[in-house]
Please model this.
Amino acid sequence: MDLDAVPQEGNATLDGHSKLMYARDAQGRVVTTTSRGWEAEEIVTSHAVDVLVEQAKEARERAKAGLASPLEYWMYERRMDVALLSQTSGFWQWRVRRHLQPRHFAALSQAHLARYAEALGLPISTLQALP
Model:
């Protein structure tokens, strides 16, 4: 993208902030510049957030019914999926999926709960319950 073509339409999801982008200047060099975003990006981001909000709502209902652990709700509430929670907590993805089941979550040690709590930015007591 050329430097003068970097979108500056504005994007409500950036909340007035700018983001760093790469573009080519007049001499053909890759340089950094800021962008206020563009409408297409805002639409896609808003849709993705809406999907995560819906997933959190569904996970909360499953957890209340005893079909999922509170971890699943908090994962979606914190805008994460299994892959991202795995990466931030240090657990393999198959273990994260296993811990989304109530009986396996209930058996987690304090050390494992602490890793999830840190990854989600929550105290352990909040992680173990639903709002």
Summary: The CA atoms of residues 82 and 97 lie 7 Å apart.
